[in-house]
Amino acid sequence: MSEKVLIVDDQFGIRVLLKEVFEKDGYETYDASNGKLALELIEEKQPDLILLDMKIPGMDGLEILREIRNRDLNVNVIMMTAYGELEMINEAKKLGAIAHFAKPFDIDEVRRKIRTFFDS
């Protein structure tokens, strides 16, 4: 069975790009444009890893991460964030995020980190 990755970002282009790249790399991928759908997919699909954008309308990445922890869901989270959100990244790490990427990101760097995560 392939590893499952959930991509949570309100930007359609980012979701499509990451989904396409990770599917080519052999991962089973899902995507969500908002927190409500993300939480539903986490419960339903039980992903191994979530790429979670920090800024999402309605429910930001930290709120989603808090909800994941409150529900005691066992899933690893990597945050995606724009430059200058260091305080939010530190909060995400306290909530158990294992890493973060700054946007715009280098897709090859993202692929290497994901591969390293699953290989460890």
From TrEMBL:
BP GO annotations: phosphorelay signal transduction system
InterPro entries, per the entry: Bact_response_regulator, CheY-like_superfamily, Sig_transdc_resp-reg_receiver
PROSITE patterns in the cross-refs: RESPONSE_REGULATORY
Transferase in keyword set: no
The organism's place on the tree of life at top rank: Bacteria
Listed Pfam families: Response_reg
GO molecular function, one term: DNA binding
Modified residues (4-aspartylphosphate): D53
Entry keyword set: DNA-binding, Phosphoprotein, Transcription, Transcription regulation, Two-component regulatory system
Protein name in UniProt: Two-component system, response regulator, stage 0 sporulation protein F
Organism: Salipaludibacillus aurantiacus
